[in-house]
Design brief:
heterodimer, A: 291 residues, mainly alpha, MetI-like fold, 0% strand, elongated, disordered N terminus, disordered C terminus, B: 340 residues, flat
C-alpha cells in the first residue's frame, strides 16, 4: 500500500518494483499466467477445440476430459482455455480503444476552447445518466453479437467516465507552477503537453486501461451469460449460459462445469484490480481528483 | 475550495441568495438532462431497425401488410406528421402516463411498470441499506487500522468480492443455499401462500445477498480511502494536537467530512442499481423492473422497452438531484454558498 516515499529509489530495479509494489507484482504474475493460458489455447490447441464433440454428453471428469463434457459432449477444459483468449483479446482491444478515446476527448475538454469543453462535458453528463448495462443489452440485441460489434459497443459506452477523470487530471496539471511558467514564456499547448505534462499524464492512462479491461471482462461475460454472446465462439460467459439453461446446478456437475469459468473470470479481474490499485496508489495524489 | 471558511449562519440574506442561485442552476441543469433523456427515449424505437410501425405489432404481422396499409397506419397514428409534432405527442403521453400497450401480453405499459417497480424498490432498497451499513462500517475500521496488517487483507478481500461476477455468485448461492441445504427459496418474490411478510423476507435473502456481497467492495474501498485522506488532513492533526480524545475526534472531526463523498457515491448507486438488478432479477426470476426490461428487449417489445427505459433513466436523474439537494444538509460549506 501507500508506503511513504521517505528515501529515493537507489537503483533502477528498485524503482520498477516500486511502481507495482508487492500487491501489483502478485497481480502481474497472475495476469501473465492467464495470458499464457490464453496463448496456449490460441496457438497450441486445434482450431475446433471446445467446439467439437469429443465424448458423450454430460461426462464426468476423466483422464481424457479433465473437466468433463457439456450437454453436447464438448470438452469443458478446452472451452475454459479457449475462453481465456476470447475474453482477454476483447478486453485489451476495447481497453486500448477506450483509453485513446478518453484521452483525446478528456484532453480536448481540458485544454480545448471553452465552447468545445462545455459541449463535451454536457455530453458526458447525459451519457452518465443512461444505465450502461441496459444500453449493452439493447445494443447487443439489435446490432448483433459478432466480436467487432461487441468491441465497438463496449468502447462507445465505456469512454465517458475515464474521459472525465482525465479531464480533471489535465486541468490539475495545467495549473501546476512549472506548466504555468512555461505557458507564461509563450509555450504552445502541444509543446506543454509533450514536454511538461506528458510525464504526469502518461502514467494515468495505465489505470484507465486496466480499469476498462476489468469492466469489459465482467460486462462481456454478463452479456454472454444472458444469452447475448456469439454462440460459435467458446467463452467463459457462454459456458455459464449453458449451465443456467441446462439447470446444471441441480446436479454435482456444477462443480466442474460452473466452477472453473467463474473462478477464471474472478481471478482475471482480481489480477487486473491488483495491478490497477497499486499503480494508482503510487501515482501523484495531486492528480487523483477524479469526478 | 476557498481558504477561509467563515461559518456564517445560514440565514444571512447573501447566503440565502447564494444558495438559491445554486439550487436554481442545478435544477436548470437537471431539466436539461431530463429533456435530453426524454428525446433519446423518443428516438429509441425510431432509431432501432424496423421503423416506428413496430410500436403496434410484431415484425411478422407487419410483414404481412401491404405498403398502402402501412402508409395508412402511419398517417392514422401521426407518424406522417412533422417530427416536432410527434415529439409533442410523445411528451403528452409521458405526462399523462399513457405509454401504450405491451406487444407481448397486451397489458398497459404503465400497469406493467407499476406492478414491477415496487419489487425492484424492495430488492434494491434492502440491498442498499445492507451494502451501505456493512461497507461503511468495514471501510471506517479499515481506514482507522490501516497500519495493523489486517488492513491489507481486508483490502484484498474487498478487491475479490468486487471482482466476482454477480450472475456467478448468484448461481453459487443457488447451488448451496437453494439446492444442497435447501434453506432459502431460489426464485420468485412470494411463496405459494400469497404475500406474507415471512415469504417476502425469505425470497429476498439470496438476491439481496448477491447484490450486497458484490456491492460492499466498492463502498469499502471508497470509504477507506476517504477516511485515510481526512485522517491525515491538517484540521484533524490539529485537533489531535489539542488533545481531543480519540472517540470524539473520530465522531466529530473525521467521520462527517470522510462520509460526505460516500454519501454522493451511494445516492448515484441507488439510481443505477435498479438497472444493475437486471442480472440478479433474471437469475432469481424476481418479478422486478430489471427482469421486465430484459424480457421486453428479448421479445422486441418496443412500447414496454421504451417505458422501462424511461423509468430507469428517470431514476438515475432523480437520485442525482436528491444527492445534490441533500448534500447541503450534510455539508455546511455548501449551505452558505461559500463555494460558489
Amino acid at each position: 500500500m501507500s508506503a511513504p516515499a521517505t528515501s529515493p529509489p537507489v537503483v533502477a530495479r528498485d524503482r520498477r518494483r516500486d511502481l507495482l509494489g508487492r500487491q501489483g507484482r502478485v497481480g502481474a504474475v497472475l495476469l501473465s499466467l492467464i495470458v499464457g493460458t490464453a496463448a496456449y489455447g490460441f496457438f497450441i490447441l486445434p482450431d475446433d477445440a471446445g467446439k467439437a464433440r469429443v465424448g458423450l454428453p454430460y461426462e464426468r471428469p476423466s483422464g481424457a476430459n479433465p473437466l468433463g463434457t457439456d450437454d453436447l459432449g464438448r470438452d469443458l477444459l478446452d472451452q475454459l482455455l479457449v475462453g481465456a483468449g476470447t475474453s482477454l483479446t476483447l478486453a485489451f482491444i476495447v481497453a486500448a480503444v477506450t483509453t485513446v478515446l478518453a484521452a483525446v476527448i478528456g484532453g480536448l475538454a481540458g485544454i480545448g476552447p471553452r465552447w468545445l469543453s462545455s459541449i463535451i462535458m454536457r455530453g458526458i453528463d447525459v451519457m452518465l445518466v443512461l444505465p450502461e448495462l441496459v444500453l449493452f443489452i439493447l445494443a447487443a440485441t439489435f446490432l448483433g453479437q459478432s466480436f467487432g460489434i461487441r468491441a465497438a459497443i463496449l468502447a462507445v459506452i465505456l469512454w465517458p467516465v475515464p474521459a472525465r477523470v482525465l479531464r480533471a487530471a489535465v486541468l490539475t496539471t495545467w495549473s501546476r507552477a512549472h506548466v504555468e511558467a512555461a505557458r507564461a514564456m509563450g509555450a504552445g499547448q502541444s509543446w506543454l503537453l509533450a514536454r511538461h505534462a506528458s510525464y504526469l499524464l502518461g502514467p494515468l492512462l495505465v489505470p484507465v486501461f486496466v480499469r476498462t479491461a476489468m469492466r469489459v471482462i465482467i460486462y462481456d461475460a454478463t452479456l454472454s451469460f444472458l444469452g447475448l454472446g456469439d454462440p460459435t465462439v467458446p467463452s467463459w460467459g457462454t459456458t455459464l449460459y449453458w449451465v443456467q439453461v441446462n439447470g446444471v446446478f441441480l446436479s454435482d456437475a456444477w462443480l466442474w462445469w460452473a466452477g472453473p469459468p467463474g473462478v477464471a473470470i474472478t481471478l482475471t479481474v482480481v489480477s487486473l484490480a491488483l495491478i490497477g490499485t497499486s499503480i494508482e496508489d503510487r501515482l501523484n495524489p495531486n492528480l487523483q481528483e477524479s469526478r | 475550495m476557498s481558504a477561509i471558511q467563515t461559518s456564517a449562519p445560514a440565514a444571512t440574506p447573501a447566503a440565502r441568495r447564494g444558495r438559491l442561485t445554486y439550487l436554481g442552476g442545478r435544477i436548470l441543469e437537471y431539466l436539461g438532462v431530463l429533456f435530453v433523456a426524454l428525446t433519446l427515449n423518443f428516438l429509441l424505437p425510431r432509431a432501432l431497425p424496423g421503423g416506428p410501425l413496430k410500436l403496434f405489432g410484431s415484425p411478422e404481422s407487419l410483414a404481412r401488410l401491404t405498403a398502402e396499409e402501412r402508409a395508412q397506419i402511419a398517417t392514422e397514428y401521426g407518424f406522417g406528421d412533422p417530427i416536432h409534432l410527434q415529439f409533442l405527442d410523445y411528451l403528452k403521453s409521458v405526462v399523462t402516463l399513457d405509454l401504450g400497450t405491451s406487444l407481448s401480453d397486451g397489458r398497459e405499459v404503465t400497469a406493467a411498470i407499476a406492478d414491477a417497480l415496487p419489487w425492484t424498490l424492495l430488492l434494491v432498497g434492502t440491498s442498499i441499506v445492507a451494502t451501505t451499513l456493512i461497507g461503511i462500517t468495514l471501510g471506517v475500521i479499515g481506514g482507522m487500522r490501516r497500519r495493523e496488517g489486517k488492513g491489507a487483507f481486508t483490502l484484498i478481500g474487498a478487491i475479490v468480492v468486487d471482482s466476482i461476477p454477480q450472475f456467478w455468485l448468484a448461481m453459487l448461492l443457488i447451488v448451496w443455499f437453494g439446492v444442497k441445504w435447501q434453506i432459502a427459496p431460489t426464485f420468485g418474490a412470494t411463496g405459494p401462500d400469497g404475500t406474507t411478510v415471512a415469504g417476502l423476507a425469505e425470497h429476498l435473502v439470496l438476491p439481496v445477498a448477491t447484490l450486497t456481497i458484490t456491492g460492499i467492495g466498492y463502498i469499502f474501498m471508497y470509504t477507506r480511502s476517504s477516511m485515510l485522506s481526512v485522517l491525515t488532513s491538517e484540521p484533524v492533526q490539529h485537533a489531535h494536537a489539542r488533545g481531543i480524545p480519540r472517540g470524539r475526534l473520530v465522531r466529530r472531526h473525521v467521520l462527517r467530512p470522510a462520509l460526505l463523498p460516500v454519501h454522493t457515491l451511494i445516492m448515484l448507486d441507488i439510481g443505477f442499481l435498479a438497472a444493475g438488478a437486471i442480472v440478479v432479477e433474471t437469475v432469481f426470476a424476481y418479478p422486478g423492473l430489471g427482469r421486465l426490461t430484459f424480457g421486453a428487449i428479448a421479445a422486441r417489445d418496443y412500447p414496454l422497452m421504451q417505458g422501462t427505459f424511461l423509468v430507469l433513466t428517470l431514476m438515475v436523474v432523480l437520485m442525482n438531484l436528491l444527492a445534490d439537494l441533500t448534500y447541503p444538509l450534510l455539508d455546511p460549506r455548501a449551505r452558505t454558498g461559500a463555494n460558489q
